[in-house]
Amino acid sequence: MGKVSWSRLTFLLMLIFVLALAACGNGGTSEEESTEESDTATEETEETTEESTEEPEETTEESEESEEATEESDESTDTGSESAETEPKVTEFEPAFPEQTRAPEVETETELDVEVVTEGLGVTWGMVEFDTNRLLVTQRDSAELLIVNLEDGSVSEPIQGTPEVNNEDQGGLLDVAIAPDFDESRLVFLTFSQDIEGGTVTAVGKGVLSEDETALEDFEVIFQATPAYEGTLHYGGRIIFDDEGNLFLTTGERSDDPIRERAQDLDAYLGKVIHITPDGEPVDTNPFIEDEDALDGIYSYGHRNIQGVDFHPETGDLWIVEFGPQAGDELNIIEPGNNYGWPIVSYGIEYTGELINEGISEHEAQGFVEPRYYWDPTSAPSGMSFYDNDAIPEWENNLFIGGLAPNYIVRVVIEDDLIVGEERLLTEEGERFRDILVTEDGALIASTDGGLIYRITAAGEGTE
Ligand SMILES: [Ca+2]
C-alpha cells in the first residue's frame, strides 16, 4: 500500500464531514424515510446492530442459504415440501429420531383476527396478564415496566421503583411474573442483567405493586446467577412459578468460549435451569442439594441460552426453548438433575461454520438428554407459551414460540411428547417476535422488537 498524503486524508475527512452535514440537514431524501417513523425505526436499527453480536449468523446464514437454495433448487430435501421448514439444512446432522426436526406442516383452519393492539413501544421482552386483559410488560432497553391495556391499547407511564440494569447488547429489564397470590400480596418478580463486581449477572428481584399501580415498592434482589462475567450476551432470564409457589429461572452460558463451558459445571449458575423459593433460596428438593460441590439452586444444566419456558397444560412438564448456535435451537423437557449437553454436543454449528467439539450431535449416545425437537436452520426462538385455553379448540395444548431472525411465530403440535406438526404464523409481518402470552380469555398475544403488541383471536371474537 502506498502512503496517503496527509493533505489528501484531511481533504477526504472534510468531504465526509460536509456530506454528513448535508445529509442531516436535508429533508425528503430517501434517508429520511427511516427517520420519519422516528422511534420505531430508530429502535429497530439499534436492535439490528445490537443483536448482531448474538445473531451475526442471520445475515451470513441467509445469504448462504439462498446460495444453497439456488444450487439445490431441483433437489428436494429429505423431508420434502411437507415440512414447515422449506430452507435447506445448514448442518449435516441427522436427527436421533424421525420426529426430532422438520415436523410435517400443519395449518390453522380457524379463521383468525390479527390486530395490532399498541405500537411505539421498545423491545417488550416479558409480559404477564396481572388483571383481566391488562398486562405488565418490560421494556428491555429503557428498563421500564409498563401496563398495557389490551381493551383500548393504552400504555401507562413507567412504574417507579424498578431496578438499575445493564442494558448493553442483550441486557436490560427482561422477564416479569406475578406471585401466585398476587391479588393479596401484589408481589411482582422481575429478571434483569445487573452490574456487580466482576461483571454482569442475571438477577431476580421482587417488589410490591402499589395500589395505584404507579410504583414497585420495597424492590429487593433475591437471586444472582453467579459468577459475574465481563460480557453482555446470553443472560437467559425467563421466570415462571410452579404449583408449589416456587420459581424456575433460566440462565445463559454468557456466550463466549471458554466461559460457555461453565454450562457443564455444577459450581456455576451459567447455562442452567434454577429452582428457587420466592425468597431466592434453593428449593429443598433440588437434585444437587446433597452434592457438596454443586450449587443447591441448580435444577438442570448443559443449556446454552434459554429464552422461553412454560408448563405443558396436560402433562405438567416444564418445557423450555433454548437459542442454538447456527441451527440447533432446542425444545427440551426439563427433569431435575439432567444434563442437556451444551457445549459438548449440539445439532448446530459455530457461527463461523466450524464444528462444535468436532461435531457431535447425538445427545443420548453421549450420555445427555436428547432435545424433543430442534431447528435447522435456526428459528431464533424467544419467548413461548402453551395455548391452555379452548377459545380456539384446534390450538389447545399447542405451543407457540416467538421467532426473532426468521420473522414468524412458530406453532407446534405435540402428541406424547413428540412434535407431530409445525406451523409458521404472521410470516408476512416482518417483525421479530420476542414474547408470547395467552390471555385468560384465549387471545394469543405477541410482542415484537419493533414495538408492537399483536392480539390474535378467532375471527369475530377479538373486537367487540
Ligand atoms: Ca442440548
UniProtKB/TrEMBL annotation:
Skewed-composition ranges (Acidic residues): 30-77
Transmembrane residue ranges: none
Source superkingdom: Bacteria
Source organism: Salinicoccus cyprini
InterPro entries on file: 6-blade_b-propeller_TolB-like, Glc/Sorbosone_DH, Quinoprot_gluc/sorb_DH_b-prop
Coiled coil regions, renumbered to chain: none
Record-annotated Glucose/Sorbosone dehydrogenase domain positions: 124-450
UniProt protein name: PQQ-dependent sugar dehydrogenase
Disordered: region residues: 26-111
Signal peptide annotation: 1-22
Keyword vocabulary terms for this entry: Signal
